[in-house]
Amino acid sequence: xxxxxxxxxxxxxxxxxxxxxxxxxxxxxxxxxxxxxxxxxxxxxxxxxxxxxxxxxxxxxxxxxxxxxxxxxxxxxxxxxxxxxxxxxxxxxxxxxxxxxxxxxxxxxxxxxxxxxxxxxxxxxxxxxxxxxxxxxxxxxxxxxxxxxxxxxxxxxxxxxxxxxxxxxxxxxxxxxxxxxxxxxxxxxxxxxxxxxxxxxxxxxxxxxxxxxxxxxxxxxxxxxxxxxxxxxxxxxxxxxxxxxxxxxxxxxxxxxxxxxxxxxxxxxxxxxxxxxxxxxxxxxxxxxxxxxxxxxxxxxxxxxxxxxxxxxxxxxxxxxxxxxxxxxxxxxxxxxxxxxxxxxxxxxxxxxxxxxxxxxxxxxxxxxxxxxxxxxxxxxxxxxxxxxxxxxxxxxxxxxxxxxxxxxxxxxxxxxxxxxxxxxxxxxxxxxxxxxxxxxxxx
Length: 444
Ligand SMILES: Cc1cc2nc3c(=O)[nH]c(=O)nc-3n(C[C@H](O)[C@H](O)[C@H](O)COP(=O)(O)OP(=O)(O)OC[C@H]3O[C@@H](n4cnc5c(N)ncnc54)[C@H](O)[C@@H]3O)c2cc1C
Known about the structure:
It comes from Cellulomonas persica. The protein contains 14 helices and 17 strands. With 444 residues, the chain is an alpha+beta fold. Flavin-adenine dinucleotide (FAD) is lined by residues 10, 48-55, 59-60, 69, 92, 114-116, 119-120, 122-124, 126-127, 129-130, 174-175, 179-180, 306, 396, 398. Flavin-adenine dinucleotide binds next to β2, α4 and β9.
């Protein structure tokens, strides 16, 4: 499997997808990439690009040609602008950790990031990967131009003013309209964040969520983890500062490696072997997490190592619905008898106008539910999916879900436009696979 998902530890889709590529190609530049696509299309083979293979859906799976863009990872251009932002053009295969390092060397950073940095920039934007922050959008909102190789093997520069419709699917479209060769990101000067992580009673979190000084609007980045079977939460508030004390390396190792990975793996194994102890384990975990405050460069605060393997489903709901959704999920958990040793994660984002963004047109709250990979996830995820359906929940494109094009068309006002542009850009289905056919609908 190593070759199918180069560099990936998770291989979630590879475990479940039945399709296997007949050929894996490693183009080194856009010319080789265009030739790979053109040759595959001539041979009647389908093509998918893969980043780090960290998606939980089989979005990158193919039984044709799999393109790994790991070697297409160089910073190409840096344009400093009078408003303090800087446009950075970079090869689409670069991993976020490497991108963060390269930007830091230039004194720059991305405005917002998710909670790991293993993904490629192309894979992350293509699935709508996001972090948290009520005034901030996901990674794709930071893209101002994209170089795309189309199904015909042509190289097209896209932006809001050049091929704007193609740009929509280039910056967030699951690779349905072409393979990204490079993206131009709007970056900001590097910044420090003060991270305040505290265990709170869940009810206090829910009471203080809203209002101008509430947890969501009163912090640049606010999120919380809720431990099922308890009324406890771990809150995280990250805000910009000019200076401050970093975390002692030993404390960081104890929290982020020992407790969050080694001990957490052990408690999940225990919960798998003896489900009846799950409630007690969660209560202990939620209470034993000690508060910590530290200051660090933004990428170090956003991302942390996540080594315990799990399945994940995440839904975007209107922000105003988040309390009701959590209450309904809690009721289902208590009445179902299901045992859930993994916390749920709740994040926030600003409304945006990207056609396929999960935050399109509405202030958004995200509910991510997880299950340890050795435990069944289907019943829990189906129940959550039924609950969020009542609130027009939109699924993360890279995480498990059961929706199809018919339902997605009701959830996204510009869905028909996305289907039209996909059909125009790839009339013969060079970039098709079963996952894309499910979410965009069969070709007519
Ligand atoms: C531990 C973990 C933590 C995560 N944390 C977050 C989080 O905080 N926030 C969040 O929103 N998501 C999160 N995710 C989900 C993850 O960000 C997405 O699934 C993302 O797509 C993974 O990036 P990748 O490089 O592995 O892409 P892949 O899984 O390899 O590919 C994803 C999609 O992008 C397409 N693609 C890849 N490269 C290209 C290209 N060059 N051109 C066109 N299309 C391309 C693929 O074909 C596929 O459709 C997490 C996942 C894991 C496993």
